[in-house]
Q: What sequence folds into this?
């Protein structure tokens, strides 16, 4: 099995990279991508704990935003971590998350949810990328909600009155940075309407022009109709189709390997990278 989208404690997952590797091996996953939000901080630990027969794909899920304010996530895989322009953008995005969190907390406090930044940071692992799931965990600890699913459904979704956007590059800029770093760019769950506003189909022309390599089609947040529409776009632009779990550990319902990428599609995607960067034990 091939799962190209997972998270660890280094962003908003609940497993260490070592735990994720062990769970993926037990699940029978042979190719695993670690794609924490806007960071590569889990790469070294994952490499140290890699065991045969697994192959490790190092990457990151990079936060983007269109000029219209639509949130987009771009999976960057197999890129050079020393490519300064991409590293600088990811660092700026991480730093901006703190100011954004303060604004969300102000809105929640006014509505009677008494959560402080200290409460949120207590849920954050050392060196991890701050995100709304950590706020969800603080809300759980305070007894306001029972789990992350409820927190996002009631309070933290993109259409919520508490939602605040944050600095992030445009999707086209992000694709160009990933390609500049020698990697491949796959847009994550682009039509997942339950997450908030989604991209209009005509946007894919500019993404392909920027160098987009693939579309994450098989994902639990895509309906059957949304997947079919994306397959049409995929065929039109000759892109690679991926399927992924978007696994976060106990924080979400997503299960490792619940959606996977076909081997022929993975081979096609890997061939688009500038260098062979898949890690083997």
A:
């Amino acid at each position: 099995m091939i799962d190209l989208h997972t998270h660890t404690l280094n962003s908003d997952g609940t497993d260490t990279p070592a735990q994720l590797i062990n769970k993926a091996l037990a699940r029978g996953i042979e190719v695993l991508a670690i794609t924490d939000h806007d960071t590569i901080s889990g790469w070294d630990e994952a490499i140290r704990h890699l065991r045969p027969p697994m192959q490790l794909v190092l990457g990151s899920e990079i936060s983007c935003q269109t000029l219209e304010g639509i949130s987009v996530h771009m999976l960057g895989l197999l890129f050079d971590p020393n490519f300064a322009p991409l590293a600088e953008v990811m660092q700026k995005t991480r730093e901006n998350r703190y100011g954004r969190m303060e604004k969300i907390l102000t809105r929640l406090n006014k509505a009677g949810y008494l959560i402080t930044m200290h409460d949120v940071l207590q849920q954050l692992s050392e060196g991890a990328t701050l995100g709304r799931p950590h706020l969800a965990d603080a809300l759980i600890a305070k007894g306001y909600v029972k789990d992350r699913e409820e927190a996002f459904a009631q309070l933290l979704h993109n259409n919520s009155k508490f939602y605040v956007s944050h600095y992030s590059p445009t999707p086209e800029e992000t694709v160009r940075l990933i390609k500049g770093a020698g990697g491949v760019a796959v847009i994550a769950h682009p039509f997942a309407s339950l997450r908030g506003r989604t991209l209009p189909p005509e946007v894919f022309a500019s993404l392909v022009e920027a160098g987009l390599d693939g579309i994450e089609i098989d994902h639990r947040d895509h309906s059957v109709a949304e997947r079919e529409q994306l397959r049409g776009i995929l065929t039109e632009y000759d892109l690679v189709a991926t399927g992924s779990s978007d696994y976060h550990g106990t924080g979400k319902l997503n299960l490792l390997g619940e959606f996977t990428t076909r081997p022929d599609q993975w081979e096609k995607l890997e061939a688009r990278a500038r260098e062979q960067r898949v890690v083997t034990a």
